Amino acid sequence: MVFMTASSDPKVKLYDLHPPLDDFRAEVLAGLGRLPKSVSPKFLYDKRGAELFDAICTLDEYYLTRTEMAILQTYAGEIATLIGDGALIEFGSGSSQKVRIILDAMPQLPVYVGLDISKQHLQESCTQLAKDYRGLEAIAICTDYTQPLQLPDIPAIGNKHKVGFFPGSSIGNLEPQEAVQFLKNTALSLEEGDLLIGVDLKKDKAILEAAYDDAQGISAEFALNLLTRINRELGADFQVENFEYRAVYNPVGRIEMYLISLIDQVVHLGDATISFDAGEQLQTENSYKYTISEFQKIATLAGFQSKQVWTDPQQWFSLHYLHLASQ
Question: What is the pTM of this model?
Answer without folding.
Answer: 0.92
